[in-house]
Design a protein that fits this description.
alpha/beta; Alpha-Beta Plaits; Rossmann fold; Glucose Oxidase, domain 1; 5 domains; seven-stranded parallel β-sheet; seven-stranded mixed β-sheet; 16 helices; 34 strands; 20% helix; globular; binds 2-acetamido-2-deoxy-beta-D-glucopyranose
Length: 745
């Protein structure tokens, strides 16, 4: 029975101090959303405490009374602040309370205590995207699934701007009778059926915008003529425009407290949501038995709720993925086939395709002098160099260039700025609205422009043209540079992220009422939540694991020019960049076969990874003990993607698929692999005569001639019938597949 001490808080604090990355999983300039309680010098700290369940039959009040038996009877200070801040009943038996360290020691000694965690502050990590994902009005999946009719999408976020036209309820029927939630907002209707604040202000209003954006992406209704200041004009809608929305406000401008996130999950489970969408996460990956989100989400999935989470915005550095527990659906971010054109025409006749959110409607055709110099290399203008009348070419800083830098250049009289990506961002242009003549270009184009400016010196000139929204950009999707990469540092044998979805320059609702273009895995997540809602509407009896399997095995491995999906450097993206592939909603609704997982499978896996201690914390079922459960290695979990050892050969994993397609179906194994990877599938044919029938097969992998510097090689297995292709990536990685949890390579 352990508790975490300051160990976790420290890295968060450091990162919060040095990084202007926001507390939500989107890439935005606004600094300082992450204020870990640096000023919390008082001896009291907030702890999330897990305890054993109260005597059976206890109601909400009974839970509270049981929890209070763990706490000191004294109130805090002269103001008499209560100890108990949140009392949980659904997500787990436990509570949040303010305690001193010595009081916590006393709590930990009481019978029934399980575990305690200090309350951490986490980071919160579209008009065109439904069409890009193949969803069209009146046809196919949208009409089959009734646009997500009858499904409730719960979001844990910053609140909601309830009167936005995206949350109008035209065409949306009343919620199903199982709905038990309440709605406290300026407008509640059949679209917005739930709105609740867990942050203590009793006000679900979205002071940030993030929650309004994610809600409308998942399940916003149709709004004609949406645009961000004239950019990206079209009819906006969420992925499941017929579904209901329930907002649980768990984040403030200071970030999202774990105690509040857990309170939001607790309420959402009680209220009866079908899908939970979390565009937030911790900065560092946390062992699942120490992660209240992973622990809480386990309760949600055991009740049939699918939990969709952002992978984080810490790419392209490997292994910084968050929300990587196997029972979560972890979403990476990619580009869409749309750009907001701004051309840079150089004096030497070259045209560079840039992008700008501030589109100038009547640009001058007069060329501006171009300046690239050490003095302004990162757009700084400390020594007030002569920038007047010139266009400054400068490089974006990590993670994002400050508005104030650009503003200082403009105030000093610059005619404009060509802002080019840093090398790590490569081809990913995460657009920002500088409200000035700023054109953003890729790293490669930036180098071309800088080289020209350096060599042509005083003769260097450029003109700008603007062509607004351009569709059909090729290649797309491309994995966005900021999208966090696998492998998971906790469980190497389960491929993470799971899936790629649109997350770069996404237009969606914003308080105002208006629309705004922002980027992040926060934006990719609700796309997948919307897809899960559509599938749930068609297949209400499918488990969260079956819905995940359907989304993964039907995803696209290729882009819109028919080649492998690329990463931000325009190299071939790996499974650790993009997961199984790019989400394909229409195909996900009809996968043919699914790789299902039940609570016992996960329990066996948790026993393998953490032993009884993990079982008590995460699964919390007194009828289960690790001694009686078959231990399940991560590589043997019935996951819809395959991870094997690169070094121990031959290496065999076993999987079981369930027929959810036509009763009489025959599938043949088809393997795609590089020459260094040999794959045998046994049996090679699966014959089904009933719906719901299961078939088990072995996949044996032998890798040979792999260079010592290569960490992993990748192939794929597809089960192919007349109607379906059920594809799983196969990743062979060093270190996976050991008898005990593997250390990272
Ligand atoms: C799609 O259909 C909905 C109603 O079913 C309608 O409100 C919306 O305007 C339509 N969108 C387009 C782009 O035609
Ligand atoms: C502007 O966009 C339109 C429509 O996408 C396209 O046909 C045209 O070629 C573009 N013009 C330039 C100069 O890029
Ligand atoms: C799969 O492998 C296991 C263990 O190696 C073996 O017992 C089983 O017979 C194999 N099944 C098939 C269908 O090859």
């Amino acid at each position: 029975m352990a508790f975490l001490t300051n160990l976790i808080l420290l890295p968060l604090l450091l990162l919060a101090t040095f990084s202007p990355t926001p507390s939500v999983c989107y890439v935005s300039p606004s600094a300082g959303r992450v204020h870990q309680s640096a000023t919390q010098t008082s001896a009291y700290r907030t702890y999330i405490v897990l305890v054993q369940p109260p005597p059976s039959g206890a109601d909400g009040e009974g839970h509270r009374r049981w929890y209070e038996t763990f706490l000191p009877s004294s109130k805090i200070g002269e103001s008499g602040e209560p100890r108990l801040l949140h009392s949980y009943t659904e997500v787990f038996s436990g509570f949040t309370a303010k305690l001193t360290e010595s009081e916590l020691d006393a709590v930990a000694k009481k019978p029934g205590f399980v575990r305690a965690f200090p309350d951490r502050t986490l980071q919160l990590m579209t008009t065109h995207t439904p069409e890009f994902l193949g969803l069209r009005n009146g046809t196919g999946l949208w009409s089959d699934a009734g646009y997500g009719k009858g499904v409730i999408v719960g979001l844990l976020d910053t609140g909601i701007y309830a009167s936005h036209p995206s949350f109008d309820d035209h065409g949306v029927p009343p919620p199903p009778s199982k709905w038990k939630g309440s709605c406290k907002a300026v407008r509640c209707n059949n679209k917005l059926i739930g709105a609740k604040s867990l942050v203590g202000d009793d006000n679900s209003y979205d002071y940030d915008g993030h929650g309004t954006h994610t809600s409308s992406t998942a399940a916003g209704n149709f709004v004609a003529g949406a645009s961000d200041q004239g950019v990206g004009t079209g009819t906006a809608s969420g992925i499941a425009p017929g579904a209901h929305i329930a907002m649980y406000k768990v984040c403030t401008k200071k970030g999202c407290k774990e105690s509040m996130i857990v309170a939001g999950m607790d309420a959402a489970i009680k209220d009866g949501v079908d899908v939970l969408s979390l565009s937030l996460g911790s900065f560092t990956s946390v062992s699942f038995n120490n992660d209240p989100i992973a622990i809480g989400a386990f309760s949600a999935i055991s009740k049939g709720i699918i939990v969709v989470c952002a992978a984080g915005n810490r790419g392209p550095t490997p292994q910084l993925i968050t929300n990587d527990a196997p029972w979560l659906l972890t979403v990476a971010a990619g580009s869409v086939d749309r750009r907001f054109d701004a051309g840079v025409h150089l004096g030497n006749g070259k045209r560079i395709d840039g992008e700008a959110l501030t589109q100038v409607t009547k640009p001058t055709s007069k060329p501006y002098p171009l300046l690239y110099s050490e003095q302004h290399r990162f757009c700084q203008n400390e020594d007030h160099g002569s920038v007047a009348g010139k266009v400054i070419v400068c490089q974006s800083t990590t993670p994002t260039t400050r508005y104030s830098d650009i503003e200082r250049l403009m105030v000093a009289g610059a005619a404009g700025v060509v802002l080019f990506n840093n090398e790590a961002a490569g081809y990913t242009i995460a657009l920002r609205d500088f409200k000035a003549r700023v054109v953003q270009v890729t790293y490669a184009d930036g180098i071309t422009i800088a080289d020209y400016a350096k060599s042509a010196l005083n003769d260097a000139v450029a003109t700008f043209t603007y062509n607004n929204t351009v569709l059909g950009v090729r290649p797309s999707p491309v994995v966005a540079s900021f999208s966090s990469r696998g492998p998971s540092s906790i469980s190497l044998g389960v491929l993470k992220p799971d899936i790629l979805a649109p997350g770069l320059n996404i237009l969606a609702a914003w308080p105002g009422p208006s629309f705004k273009i922002i980027s992040g895995t926060s934006m990719a997540t609700p796309h997948v939540s919307g897809v899960a809602a559509l599938i749930k509407s068609l297949h209400p009896d499918w488990s969260p694991a079956a819905i995940k399997s359907a989304i993964l095995t039907t995803s696209d491995a290729v882009n819109n020019i028919g080649t492998s999906i690329l990463n931000e450097r325009h190299g071939k993206a790996s499974a650790y960049d993009r997961g199984a592939g790019h989400v394909n909603p229409a195909k996900a609704a009809d996968p043919g076969l699914v790789y299902d997982l039940g609570m016992t499978d996960y329990a066996g896996y948790i026993c393998w990874l953490f032993g009884d201690e993990g079982l008590v914390t995460i699964v919390r079922k007194s009828s289960l003990s690790c001694a009686k459960l078959p231990k399940v290695k991560d590589v043997q979990l019935n996951y819809p993607t395959l991870t094997v050892s690169l070094t121990s050969m031959p290496f065999t994993v076993t999987r079981t698929v369930t027929n959810v397609g036509p009763a009489d179906s025959t599938y043949a194994a088809k393997v795609d692999s590089p020459s260094s990877m040999t794959v045998h599938v046994s049996p090679e044919t699966l014959v089904f005569s009933k719906v719901g029938e299961k078939r088990t097969f072995n996949v044996t992998v032998i890798c040979q001639g792999v260079g010592a510097s290569e960490m992993f090689v990748e192939g794929s297995l597809s089960w192919v019938s007349k109607k379906h292709v059920v594809r799983s990536p196969i990743v062979a990685i060093r270190g996976a597949g050991g008898p005990t949890p593997a250390p990272l390579p």
